[in-house]
Amino acid sequence: MQDSQQLNKIPSSSRLLYLVFISSSVCVIYLLVSLFLVEFSKPADLFSISEGVQAPTRLEHIVFGISSDSNSWRSRKDYVELWWKSNRMRGCVFLESPPRRNISDSSLPPVCVSEDTSRFRYTYRWGYRSAIRIARVVKETVLLNHSNVRWYVFGEDDTVFFPENLVKTLRKYDHRLWYYIGANSEIYEQNHAFGFEMAFSGAGFAISASLAEVLANIFDSCIERYPHLYGSESRIYNCLAELGVGLTREPGFHQLDVSGNAFGLLASHPLTPLVSLHLMDHIDPIFPNMTRSKAMEHLLKAANVDSERILQQTVCYDRWFSWTISVTWGYAIQVHSRHVFLPDLLPAEETFRKLKLKSNNISGVYTFNTREYHPDPCRRPTIFFLDSVSFCKNGIRTIYKKYYENCSYDMGSPRKLDEIRVFSQQLDLDTKQLQAPRRHCCDVLPSSGIKLMEIAIRECRKDEMIYMH
Ligand SMILES: *[C@@H]1O[C@H](CO)[C@@H](O)[C@H](O)[C@H]1NC(C)=O
Ligand SMILES: *[C@@H]1O[C@H](CO)[C@@H](O)[C@H](O)[C@H]1NC(C)=O
Ligand SMILES: *[C@@H]1O[C@H](CO)[C@@H](O)[C@H](O)[C@H]1NC(C)=O
Ligand SMILES: *[C@@H]1O[C@H](CO)[C@@H](O)[C@H](O)[C@H]1NC(C)=O
Ligand SMILES: *[C@@H]1O[C@H](CO)[C@@H](O)[C@H](O)[C@H]1NC(C)=O
Question: Which Pfam families match (predicted)?
């Protein structure tokens, strides 16, 4: 299926039925076998790591510090539960006081109660002094004194991490050197105010263990020197700056400083693995007709099958109908009823609204390229959202179903499609490939018909280019 070079557009329904039957029965067997393998391949003691420093970084080498408070933890623990793996992860969620009810849920990180910070001054007029407590999560996480730590990773209670991609991303760096890794805001104004060189904590950030240990020792002196700063991240950033360390930007971390529908931003993810999403309350659920955490859980179904490919975008063309098909794996497919050049699809469609900030006049100035979100739904591409994901013969099959759009006059041909199936191989790039990533190619398969389209994703050939031939 993957190798098909033909561009024969005539659907053959009997062949299609056969194909569906074969692939679904193989899928079931494949799925059972892989579940079995996962269940029985767990090592006995995951934390007894005895290999040398050269061995690749694993999840067990990371200690997490999650900042929260008793109020927000009650609802946000649902987000943390989505990605937390108790048997492979270490760390704490930091609250200002012990939770009223004794929550000892094994699917959640243990609760640590932050130390008293009332002795430190906080002089920023419009801010909250909890910023000091949150900043000190960095120090208090290091002081948990875990062994065999290579990286400390910090986030908020509404940060959703993609753990395998986090590990793959950190593997690019030598943990024995001093690293401060993360991302800044999507909004120019936020970076202008807080620093382009500061890692925003909603996106999460990583500090190598060698650096974190030094930072923990001197941290309180920084808290004392910077009582006038607003937030927790500024205190961490200033302290690292005094140590002479700058930010290493990784675009897989996402602060998501937008509001409303983040679709356009997610659908045009950069070519690096998705590391985190900051699910703030002003962002709509990422799938229609679902709650915020159900929608995230739905995305994670795909991420659990192929973590590295999640949100990776590829484009292919249907020459017969002159359609442009943009696949954002594990999330959504957009079918344009006309020819669009690939570079014109890479800017983020402005489906989102700007955040309400203090001086609102430039809060719509982003640090990435955007393109118009057409006000008329009939002029937008037809969107298909992820429905299901499964293993099948030779790889992975994701199914996307058409999303209802209020469009009555343009019943152009892509809108007649109900479903799109995408076949792909599990993505498992090594560090060298991650340092120089390349977009994949796709083909519309000849098994496609009027209501159903089938697409295969594959590596591009050496000099292959993505355009309509
Ligand atoms: C919470 O429950 C655990 C296990 O049941 C127990 O060990 C612990 O002491 C309890 N903590 C508090 C604060 O009650
Ligand atoms: C970690 O080690 C430091 C220094 O030895 C000590 O002060 C601190 O209490 C230890 N923390 C824990 C949680 O044991
Ligand atoms: C939303 O979900 C509900 C229940 O799952 C379903 O009944 C309803 O038809 C859905 N609405 C849309 C617009 O898909
Ligand atoms: C934004 O507003 C502030 C205060 O109202 C003003 O000083 C500044 O020049 C404005 N900036 C832009 C880019 O319009
Ligand atoms: C669909 O669009 C029409 C005309 O633009 C509008 O009157 C109607 O309320 C819309 N329906 C929905 C469900 O949004």
Answer: DUF604 (PF04646)
Pocket test for ligand 4, best of 359, 363, 366 (most atoms within 8 A of CB): 359
CB distance 406 to ligand 3 below 6 Å: no
Triad 16, 21, 25: Cα angle to 5°: 150
- Closest listed ligand to the CA of 357: 4
Q: Which atom of ligand 4 is nearest to the CA of 365?
A: 13
**189 falls within a domain:** yes
Q: Which of 272, 270, 244 is nearest to 171 (CA)?
A: 272
Q: What is the mean pLDDT of each run of 10 residues along the chain (469 residues)?
A: 36 42 50 45 44 84 97 93 96 92 81 96 94 98 98 98 98 97 94 94 98 98 96 97 98 96 97 96 95 96 98 95 96 95 96 80 85 91 97 94 82 86 96 95 94 97 93
Residues 88 and 190 in one domain: yes
Q: Quick count: other Cβ atoms within 10 Å of Cβ 365?
A: 12
Q: For residues 287 and 296, give the distance between their C-alpha atoms in angstroms, rounded to a whole number.
A: 8
Residue 241: DSSP 8-state: H
- Alpha-carbon distances of 388 from 117, 217, 285, 441, rounded to whole Å: 48, 48, 18, 22
Whether 468 maps to a domain, the answer reads no
Same domain for 163 and 28, yes or no, is no
Number of domains in the chain: 3
Contact 97, 116 (CB under 8 A): no
Ligand 3 atom closest to Cα of 289? 1
In a domain, residue 465? The reply is: no
For residue 24, the enclosing domain spans 2-41
Residue 321 in domain: yes
Structure tokens at 434: 């991650």
pTM exceeds 0.90, yes or no: no
φ, ψ of residue 160 in degrees (nearest 5): -105, 120
What token pair was written down for 386?
A: 């992820």
Q: Are 329 and 312 in contact (CB under 8 A)?
A: yes
Number of neighbouring beta carbons within 10 Å of residue 358: 8
Instruction: State residue 8's pLDDT score.
Output: 37
Q: How far apart are alpha carbons 386 and 402 in whole angstroms? A: 9
- 232 CA from centroid of ligand 4 (Å): 26
CB–CB of 251/200 below 8 Å? no
Q: What residue has token string 């994701």?
A: 398
- Ligand 4 lining (C-beta closer than 6 Å): 359, 361-362
Residues 364 and 233 placed together within one structural domain of the fold: no
d(CA 256, CA 205): 14
